[in-house]
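Deliverable D4.2, example record:
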Amino acid sequence: MLDVRPELISIGSVRLRDGRLEGVAEEVNFLGPIIRIKVRTEQKVITVDTFNNASTQPLERGQPATVCFAREDVLLLPDDDAA
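Output generated by the structure prediction step:
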């Protein structure tokens, strides 16, 4: 199983990122200075934490979203079924 911490994932077209997944914003929750966005991709829902920036319009529910992450931020976790 692969994992990336939510705060290491960004939304948008970040050129220097290795991994990109296309999806749709399913939930947008404002948590003080943080916005937690759940993006549904073809395979699963990905949670992204981003700073609430007054100069940037946050995603709205139903909007297309590109989830981006760096290769070095990906962790390989043991599969729960492997014993």
